[in-house]
Amino acid sequence: MSAFESVSRGLQEALDFANGELAGAKVHEVSVAKVDVAEVRQKTGLSQAEFAKSIGVAKGTLLNWEHGRRQPTGPAQVLLALIARQPSVVQDLLRGA
């Protein structure tokens, strides 16, 4: 199969899935536990500004999460769950960079 055919097939599968046709589509769902963002940050020992900077979000976003006005989703939720399990993970990575 040529690259063009492969891409065309993939696009057609995506369109079919978007139209509710699930035949042949592989759907991967990832379930990530919700975390208490303030508790996670406190475990790292970082201030709100330092923690926000270390995970690449605005301080305002972090404040919204900590006060329950918004919930982290997608990659942010996964990163926070990882930090909840190993609070030093971000600092360890940043030191190695």
UniProtKB/TrEMBL annotation:
User: What keywords are annotated for this sequence in UniProt?
Assistant: DNA-binding, Transcription, Transcription regulation
Which Gene3D superfamilies is this protein grouped with?
lambda repressor-like DNA-binding domains (1.10.260.40)
In terms of Pfam families, this protein maps to: HTH_3
Q: Which InterPro entries match?
A: Cro/C1-type_HTH, HTH-type_reg/antitoxin, Lambda_DNA-bd_dom_sf
SMART domains this protein is in?
HTH_XRE
Domain HTH cro/C1-type per the UniProt entry, residue ranges: 37-73
Keyword Transport in record: no
Output the Gene Ontology terms for molecular function.
Answer: DNA binding
Q: CDD domains per the record?
A: HTH_XRE (cd00093)
| Record PANTHER family | ANTITOXIN MQSA, MERR FAMILY BACTERIAL REGULATORY PROTEIN
Q: Would you tell me the protein name for this molecule?
A: Putative transcriptional regulator
Write down the species: Actibacterium naphthalenivorans
